[in-house]
Amino acid sequence: MKIRALITRPHEKGEQLARQIKAAHGAALCCPFIDISAGQQFDKVSSLLEKLQPGDYIIAISDNAVEYANSSLTLGNKTWPQQINYISVGPTTAKRWQKYGVNHVEIPDTHDSEGVLKLLANVLVTGKNIVILRGNGGRETMAEDLIKRTANVTYCEVYQRTVPNYDPEVLINKWQQFAINSVIITSGEILSNLIKTIPYTALPWILNLNFIVPSQRIAALAHGLGIEHVTIASGASNNSLFNAVKQLDMQIGIS
């Protein structure tokens, strides 16, 4: 494998993916374009979940949401409520919940807001309390749709994403010396942060690299920025991304 990948996801998962690539005799360089830390509503998890009634919903946008929410509950000597409907956007998030004793978690067919809405399309949510565990900001599609259907939706921003402070010229020199030939992106926000950080003079070079993204939506964003070479993984998990790395390695004939 001759892949030389730039991994832009947060540090812990980025390092895990780098180890997978290196074990397959590829090369990988981690440079997170999002940092994760406790959010403004980290200490409000217990009070929000205590208000839920049997049959209400908790939706987790990511495994980070579950991890930080669980840490908040643990600090307050609380546990995840029973008789609640749990929905995770993807299987990695569901596994994180299972780690903390929540075993009955629904997972949509597509791992995004649209997938969750499709999962709930035939469910009567009128009057239901729905807590969405997420980071700061993010897409509003899910909440807007559920509110239109007269559900009581509450966001709980248990973690926050911030942009690391990099010296752009130092980054480009490092990447070019490393001879990266592919970039792994796991969210639209990371893609935006990357492009905003790159010096204008280096944009033609970076846009001509091979990009790996986790969904059609982010692929469309990449194409809109002028990125031509995009491989779509089956999801944002490291295993899905690693499979896409192997696929790209074969497609461009650099093995």
Describe this structure in words.
With 255 residues, the protein is an alpha/beta fold. It folds into 2 domains: 4-34 and 163-251, Rossmann fold (3-Layer(aba) Sandwich); 37-161, Rossmann fold. It has 11 helices and 11 strands. It has helices at 11-23, 45-50, 63-75, 91-99, 113-119, 141-148, 168-178, 188-197, 203-207, 216-224, 238-251; strands at 4-7, 27-30, 35-38, 57-60, 85-88, 105-106, 129-135, 152-162, 182-184, 210-213, 230-232. The strands form 2 sheets. The chain has a 6-stranded mixed beta sheet. It has a 5-stranded parallel beta sheet with strand order 2-1-9-10-11, sandwiched between helices. Strand 7 (129-135), helix 6 and strand 8 (152-162) form a beta-alpha-beta unit. Helix 1 (11-23) crosses helix 11 (238-251), helix 3 runs parallel beside helix 4 and helix 5 (113-119) packs parallel to helix 6 (141-148). The protein is elongated. The termini are close together. This is Uroporphyrinogen-III synthase. Catalyzes cyclization of the linear tetrapyrrole, hydroxymethylbilane, to the macrocyclic uroporphyrinogen III. Its EC number is 4.2.1.75.
Helix content: 40-55%
Q: Strand order, main sheet: write it out.
A: 3-8-7-4-5-6
End-to-end Cα distance = 5 Å
Structural class: alpha/beta
Query: How would you spell out the order of helices and strands?
Result: EHEEHEHEHEHEHEHEHHEHEH
Name of the level-1 CATH class of the largest domain: Alpha Beta
Write down the overall geometry: elongated
CATH level 3 topology of the largest domain: Rossmann fold
Rounded mean pLDDT is 94
Runs in which pLDDT lies below 50 for 5 or more consecutive residues are: none
CATH architecture of the largest domain: 3-Layer(aba) Sandwich
Using only CA atoms, what is the Rg? 19 Å
Structurally, how many domains make up the residues?
2
Strand content: 15-25%
